[in-house]
Amino acid sequence: MKATHRIFLLTLLLSTAASLQPAYAQDPIAEAIKAGVKKVIVALDLQVQRIQNETIWLQNAQKVIENKLSELRLTEISEWTERQRSLYSDYYQELWQVKQAIATYQQVQEIITLQAALVSEYRRAYGLFRQDGHLSPGELDYLYRVYAGILSESIQHLDQALLVTSSLATQMRDGERLARLEAAAAGIRHTYSELRRFNASQLQLCLQRARAQGDLEAVQRLYGINTGN
Length: 229
Known about the structure:
Blueprint: H1 2-18, H2 28-72, H3 82-132, H4 137-165, H5 174-213, H6 216-222
Helix pairs in contact: 1-2, 1-4, 2-3, 2-4, 3-4, 3-5, 4-5, 5-6
């Protein structure tokens, strides 16, 4: 699944790059997102829905177990029979499994939220840069290539998260699963931060050119910048 998503996206990116026209009448990366990134997000979202349904039961189970442990006040029991030791050990083991499942759900949810924010940031910024008029066709082509690389990198992190949450990873140990999900989330956080820094630098360039050409106010309105006037 991972290889198929990546090959499919990169094929779309390459074919789109080959047909890119100076007029930029259509957004080539948006087509790649629709077929690649969106497909992976949908697949992950289905995983989250399933995990969320299971988590409702798990959270209820967690409350029951914690209440039971509180009632028993295990720390105050000085002498356990072997039977009691085994029973309470099972309670602790089940409680640990519940908490691990909830942690997994929260990690996957964060990954989807980050990826959605990344795609939204790209679409907003690239759409505005194309309307700006202060960037040449060559510079817009450069933006396209940077965005393509950023989205391709984010898909690698999504693929990793999808692999971890798929049925193929059911035998994976909890610690390893959470570590991989955290690595995927960290990767997307970094990619998202890089995208925002890149967009901020391009915005400053456009504002500088607008100021030099005497149309700063119009450009500020385009980007929704409040001048305070």
